[in-house]
């Protein structure tokens, strides 16, 4: 039994920014949460070692989590743009090849 190959969908250029922004938002949010957790744990540990009863946990937001998330967002935006443009070009080429093969047969 021979199955028909699935056709390659026509790539849509206007979906590139949507996917880039979605991936950037999700990864940035995740990196903010992880760096905040690690920042709070580090500040609490340092406060315990110095016998401080009430550590200032806003340092974890301002000086650890926010800069870390901003750096990750910058890296993710650039890498997601590169990957999405590459994917778009690949799909476009595959679509053209499929059209040529259909016309030849």
* Distance separating the two termini: 20 Å
Given the C-alpha coordinates, what overall shape results? rod-shaped
Number of domains: 1
Average the pLDDT over all residues and give the rounded result.
92
What helical percentage do the residues reach? over 70%
> What is the C-alpha radius of gyration, as a whole number of Å?
23 Å
Q: Uncertain regions: pLDDT < 50 for 5+ in a row?
A: none
What composes the largest sheet?
none
Summing up helix and strand content along with how strands pair, one would put the structural category as mainly alpha
The count of strands amounts to 0
Key features of this structure:
105 residues, mainly alpha, 2 helices, 0% strand
Summarize the structure.
This protein is mainly alpha-helical and 105 residues long. The protein has two helices and no strands.
Task: Describe what you observe in this structure.
With 105 residues, this protein is mainly alpha-helical. The chain has one domain (15-104). 78% of the residues lie in helices and 0% in strands. The chain is built from two helices and no strands. It has helices at residues 15-49, 58-104. Helix 1 (15-49) runs antiparallel to helix 2. The radius of gyration is 23 Å and the shape is rod-shaped. The chain starts with 14 loop residues before the first helix and ends with a helix. The model has no long low-confidence stretch (mean pLDDT 92).
